[in-house]
Amino acid sequence: MHQHHVRRPPVRRLASVEEGRTDRPEEERADPGDAEEGRLWHVTLSVSGTPAPVGEVRRALEQLAHDHPFLLTSRYAEDHAEIRYWEQARDLRDAAAVALRLWGEHRRTAGLPPWEIVGLEVIGRDVYHQRIAEGYGPPPAVPVGVHPF
Description:
The protein is of the alpha+beta class. The protein contains three helices and five strands, in the order βαββαβαβ. It has a five-stranded mixed beta sheet.
């Protein structure tokens, strides 16, 4: 698991997020002034759209994984794909904001299809491992890489 340390500009809050609400107790909240530190978040990004040749989809996802080795695994078909990876971020909002920009920001450079984001799940590392232990989370991404559905 490669941790990815990048200083990012502050992220604007989305209108749908309740102001100031958090699910973590006060003592567990990250220090907002400590942008270098962060927690690990497991991100699953789902995209879909007009069918494209699967060979081109695979090549584009391989290029994205090469350009951004934090990608844990991706699965694809001619009209949809799922990307799973670990992101280090101060909080869930930051991790989600980065994930929501990923496809669009790298569409041209990686040759990704012009698909839209249709799903996003961001969970903390502890929740991820708890789900795996209880047998109802996503299976561990083995083997790592780009694979057909």
